[in-house]
């Protein structure tokens, strides 16, 4: 049962098939079948068209914004019942597969945090290459927002603290106000890492083995579908479910990671904060908008840029 679904979809893993599959025959059909890539492509076209109209379609823009708020509120309602679902899913998994499943969960969590540590090291190294020794005070200043994101499992909760922390290391506010919102939609390192680990764990736990080409395809797929993910707890589960559906696997398989999702979500959120903070500082350096270190906590927004 587990292996038959991906085997039936191996013909779709080609560049031609991937590109042709991006265009939906009907947006309603794509929504009904949960074809996340087709929905993303359609949304990009609609968003581009609305932006090109300038102020000629304010009602449409307002409607979309309100719809997004409604969907987030519905998700919030569902998440309030999540603890009961997690208890039931974890109890069912242990009852059917035994206590050794706890060891498997432990390896999963340790593997994720080990990879996250490597990613943090790469982010620090990249920051050091561009920023030099100033990467150290940068990481020192973002400790508070990073810990806040980790403890709340929400990078959105840490957003105001990042806005306060980055100017303290000389990143001008106009760079912060531009890079951070963009990064919160398109530079989600932690979310990408978590979605990859979660999807692979679910597949392997059910006996589904992907070839190297399929794994690469999955990474490319997640690079697209993880963009714009909400910075709230358990938001990554939606992307993982969409990925399972694309591979012809049951969405219900997501239940196997619910028991440890919060532990991983904490690391995901913290990594997103670190990645976007480093990105903001690097962009500021490249654009000549990185000021001298402010003295006594003064805002460096008006200081002359260093060479």
Automatic annotation (TrEMBL):
<keyword id="KW-0812">Transmembrane</keyword>
<dbReference type="InterPro" id="IPR001991">
    <property type="entry name" value="Na-dicarboxylate_symporter"/>
</dbReference>
<keyword id="KW-1003">Cell membrane</keyword>
<feature type="transmembrane region" description="Helical">
    <location>
        <begin position="237"/>
        <end position="260"/>
    </location>
</feature>
<keyword id="KW-0472">Membrane</keyword>
<dbReference type="GO" id="GO:0006835">
    <property type="term" value="P:dicarboxylic acid transport"/>
</dbReference>
<dbReference type="GO" id="GO:0015293">
    <property type="term" value="F:symporter activity"/>
</dbReference>
<dbReference type="GO" id="GO:0005886">
    <property type="term" value="C:plasma membrane"/>
</dbReference>
<feature type="transmembrane region" description="Helical">
    <location>
        <begin position="36"/>
        <end position="53"/>
    </location>
</feature>
<dbReference type="InterPro" id="IPR036458">
    <property type="entry name" value="Na:dicarbo_symporter_sf"/>
</dbReference>
<keyword id="KW-1133">Transmembrane helix</keyword>
<feature type="transmembrane region" description="Helical">
    <location>
        <begin position="208"/>
        <end position="225"/>
    </location>
</feature>
<feature type="transmembrane region" description="Helical">
    <location>
        <begin position="74"/>
        <end position="96"/>
    </location>
</feature>
<keyword id="KW-0813">Transport</keyword>
<feature type="transmembrane region" description="Helical">
    <location>
        <begin position="178"/>
        <end position="202"/>
    </location>
</feature>
<protein>
    <submittedName>
        <fullName>Glutamate-aspartate carrier protein</fullName>
    </submittedName>
</protein>
<dbReference type="Pfam" id="PF00375">
    <property type="entry name" value="SDF"/>
</dbReference>
<feature type="transmembrane region" description="Helical">
    <location>
        <begin position="108"/>
        <end position="131"/>
    </location>
</feature>
């Amino acid at each position: 049962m587990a292996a038959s679904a991906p085997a039936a979809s191996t013909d779709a893993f080609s560049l031609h098939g991937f590109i042709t599959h991006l265009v939906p025959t009907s947006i309603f059909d794509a929504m009904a079948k949960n074809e996340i890539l087709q929905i993303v492509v359609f949304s990009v076209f609609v968003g581009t068209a609305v932006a090109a109209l300038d102020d000629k379609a304010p009602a449409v823009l307002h409607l979309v914004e309100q719809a997004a708020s409604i969907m987030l509120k519905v998700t919030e309602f569902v998440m309030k019942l999540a603890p009961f679902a997690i208890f039931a899913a974890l109890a069912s998994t242990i009852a059917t597969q035994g206590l050794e499943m706890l060891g498997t969960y432990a390896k999963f969590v340790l593997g994720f945090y080990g990879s996250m540590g490597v990613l943090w090291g790469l982010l620090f190294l990249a920051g050091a290459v561009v920023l030099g020794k100033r990467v150290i005070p940068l990481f020192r200043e973002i400790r508070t927002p990073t810990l806040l994101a980790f403890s709340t499992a929400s990078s959105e909760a840490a957003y105001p603290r990042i806005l306060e922390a980055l100017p303290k290391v000389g990143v001008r506010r106009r760079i912060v106000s531009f890079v951070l919102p963009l990064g919160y939609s398109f530079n989600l390192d932690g979310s990408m890492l978590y979605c990859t680990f979660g999807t692979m764990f679910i597949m392997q736990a059910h006996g589904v083995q992907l070839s190297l080409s399929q794994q690469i395809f999955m990474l490319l797929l997640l690079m697209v579908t993880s963009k714009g993910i909400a910075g709230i707890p358990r938001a990554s589960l939606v992307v993982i479910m969409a990925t399972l559906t694309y591979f012809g696997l049951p969405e219900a398989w997501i239940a196997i990671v619910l028991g440890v999702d919060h532990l991983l979500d904490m690391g995901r959120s913290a990594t997103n904060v670190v990645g976007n903070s480093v990105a903001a500082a690097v962009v500021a350096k490249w654009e000549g908008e990185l000021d001298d270190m402010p003295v006594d906590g003064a805002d460096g927004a008006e200081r002359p840029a260093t060479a």
